[in-house]
Structure formats: structure tokens, C-alpha cells
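Provenance and format

Records in this collection were gathered into a single text stream. Each protein contributes a sequence line and a C-alpha cell line. The two records reproduced below are adjacent in the stream.
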Amino acid sequence: MRTRIPPHESPRRGASRLLVLAIASIALAGCHPGNVEARRLRQSCESGVVADCNQFAVKLQKGEYVLRDDARAATLFERACTGGVGDGCASLGVVYQRGSGVKRDSARAPALFQQACERGTMEGCTRLGVLYRQGAGVTRDAAHAASLFQKACDGRDLRGCANLGTLYSLGEGVGQDLARATDLFQRSCEEKVALGCVGLGRHHAAGIGVPRNDSLAAELFMQACDSGDAGGCFHRGTLYEAGLGVTQKFDSAAALYRESCDEGLGEACARLAGLYDRGAGVRRNPERATEVRKRACDLGYSDACEKPKKEA
């Protein structure tokens, strides 16, 4: 609501009133519980409480009641980790993986996640398990990944449960157990873990361990996609392209593939290239199809790579 200056009041006096109101508003904002908590954490961190350094770093990273400062957040995560805070080690590992406020150095991540896991931070166990499954910075070891995911899941980190479900679904590092995989996906999806919803959706889409239900699969993929998961968007796109569980819409499929491709999912790029080739949901553009297919190959989706010509 605009503050009006009464007709009998001088402009100077009116301006003074507005200044007082502005100062009062700033003062009230400074008294917001979020601002008070941020100041408390900063002061506590400066006094040497490393657990509060970790919490204040989270606020700096998010820009929550403080100005966002990724570099300072990284410094405080390191202080917390050095001081024995497992959460700080896990967060610092992610910081180095992404290069947030520091020079990217993914080689440091495994040791930091290991420290976090050993100190009881289950997120560290899950993240370390992902690295062992991928062979990223460590020797690939699916069985060890499974044990780390199990530890995380037992410690109530549901992302660990979802990852463990993926291994049971594929029989990777563990004996294949579709019923157990479905249960792990169900538990994690109910708690809004996108990977769990994608896994459960894939089981329903293929009728693996559960009755086939394309409509339910579409809902699960959308739930994952809405939370920012590229895999969920991709799989939802495949259903739109095929007209399974949803009305066939090539333009919707193209939009979802594009979103997933932009997030680095090679297979989504390849599918999008196919739509450009056919002119399905997008204007036919063979040149664009070639560009997008090359991106799919560069992202590691080998089926999109040009096959060497056989010698006559």
C-alpha cells in the first residue's frame, strides 16, 4: 500500500516520515528469526564451534538470510570437516565435484565422502557408493557400492535405498531380486526421492516385478521430472512418444528430451535427434539432428556414435 502524505503536511516532513518507516522496516527485517539464526551461527562459528560453521556454510551456499558466498561456504565446510563434522566432509566433497567456490577437483571427492561415511553421515556413504558404481575416481566395484548403499539405507538415507534398488533391479554387484528392488524404490519414492520414483516407474512400465501399468509409470516419471530429475523427464518423454499411459504428443516428448539432453543425458539427445530426423513434434531438420546426435555420442551414449565404415 502506498503511503500518502496528508495535504496539511509539508513535503519535507512527509519525506522524513517515509525515511523513518523505511528504517523501521529494515530493523524489523533484521529481527526476523532467520536473520537472527544466521547471525548466531556466524558468531558461534567464529568462536570455534565447527558444527555451526557447517550450518552457516549451508546458509551461505543457499543465500539463506545472508548474501550467497560459495567461496566462503567452501572454506567453512573445510573447517567443519577438519574439525570432525561428517556433514562438512560430505558437503565439501560435493563442492569439489561441482567446482562451487573452488577450483573443480573431483579427485578429492572419494576421500571426503569416505571420511563423512566413517563419521556416520549416511549421505557420504551414498555418494561414495555412486563413485564406486561408476568407477569415478576409484576402481569400479559394484559389490562395494552395494555394501555402501546398504549401510546408507540402514542409516535412513533413502537415496541409498533407491541406489540399492537399482543394483537389485539389474543384478549388479548383488543377486538380482526384483521384489526387493521394487520395495526399495517404493520406500524411497514415498519420501520424494526422484531416483526411487524413476526406478518404480520403470518397473511398472515394463511389468518387472509388478503388474504393468503405463499410466502409473507416467505419473511416477512426472513426479521425478517435477523434482528436477533428468531421468524422470526422459522416461516420461518416451511414454509421450509412444503414446503409452498418456496421449501421444510428439511435441511434449521433444520438450522433455530437450530438457534431459541439456542436463547431460545422452540417450535423451539421441531420441531428440530421431524426432528432428522425422519432423515429429519439431520441424524436420537433418542438420540439427546430426548436431544433437553428436552431443549424445560425446555424452557417452555409444549407440549414437558414427560406426566406422567397413573396408570393401
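Adjacent record:
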Amino acid sequence: MKIDPTFGRRAQTIAGNQLETIASGIDAMRLDGLRHAQAAADTRTGALRQERARLAAKYGPDAPQVALADARIEAQQGVATRARADIERAEIPRPEVGAKGAVIYGRVIDGSGAGLPGYTVVARDARGAVRGRAVSGDRGAFQITLDGGVVGREAPRLRRKAKEPVAGEPGNGEASGGRAVTLEVSKGQNVVARREEALEVQPGTAAYVELVVPRGGATTAPPRSKR
């Protein structure tokens, strides 16, 4: 019997395509379920408001029955808010990544999970050099494609020192080919949020992250790149 040497590779390709189709179907079902949950929460909130109005007319606005209705409305609004945040999260598509590329994508959000557009997200390596940046758009979504090396004025100096380990390259305490970065969020000249924990992204992969901007935000100046 003659063995086809390409059979294993072709089988892997077919299996991968099938898994992607299954995953897409599951994501679509989950998103549909979230939309139904949000609609149900909004309907429930409307019904509770009508009940509150009836209780206020019957017992007066300061009655304990009205206070209980207010508490129920607030709780239901929280459910609706979380559902909307989950929908926005699920609607962000996973970006396509080349074999040597690496992408960080996600959302800039407030404490309730609502997206915040117009914020600048910067990825820095261990030296503080900028590896990529993006501005959050609709619903706070952003996407950063990490460059293959260190960008800016530091790059020529580092290239001349070929033996010096560079953040994001093997030999600097990172997995082979990995790119470890920290993320910061700014509005204008002020940094309003940071993800201090390093995020390592391997070539050919995309990492999802949500960056929370606290109410009021920070007022620190952006750090300078180390030289």
C-alpha cells in the first residue's frame, strides 16, 4: 500500500477549518443568547418602572414599597448593563494575524464595562520603547499590531549591538519569539490607566485585553522611553 506523505498535513488543515467553523457557530449562538438576555432585562426594567409608578400613586413616593421597587429597578439595570458589555465584547472580531505578526486587541472601558472611544493605547517593551499604538474607536475597540523589533530612535543603536538582548526577543527571559509589553491608556497628555503586568504575545497570535479607566482617571505624565 502506497502511503501519501501529505496526508497528515492535509488532515490537520481540514480539522483546523472544521474547528474554526464550529467555533464561529458557537460564538454566533452565544451572541444571540446575549442579545435575548439584554432584551429580556430591558423588558423587565420597563415592567418594574410601571410597577413603581403604581406603588407611588397608591402609597406615596416615600413608602417602603416604592423603595423596594427602586432597589429592584437598580438591580435589573445592572443586569442590562452587564449584558450590553458582554455583547460589545462578543461583537469584536478576532483579527487575522500573519505567521510572524502579533496583535493585541480589545476594548477601553469604564467601571461599568461600557466602551470608551477616543483613548490612545500604547504598548511598550521592557525598555519603555513604544512597540505600537492605537486609538480606541466605536465601543472602545482598539487593535495594535506589534512591530517585529524596537521602534523609534533606539532601533539603530540596538541593531549595532547585535549581541545585546532586546525585549521581545529570545535571550531576554521571554519565550522564544515572544513579545512582552505593558499597556497604558492616555487621554490627551495624561495617562489615565496602565496594565503594569507584562502581556506576552507570541508570533502568529492575537491577545484580547480590556483596559479599565477608573472614574476620574489618573493624571500622570506618560513615561519617557529608556535609552
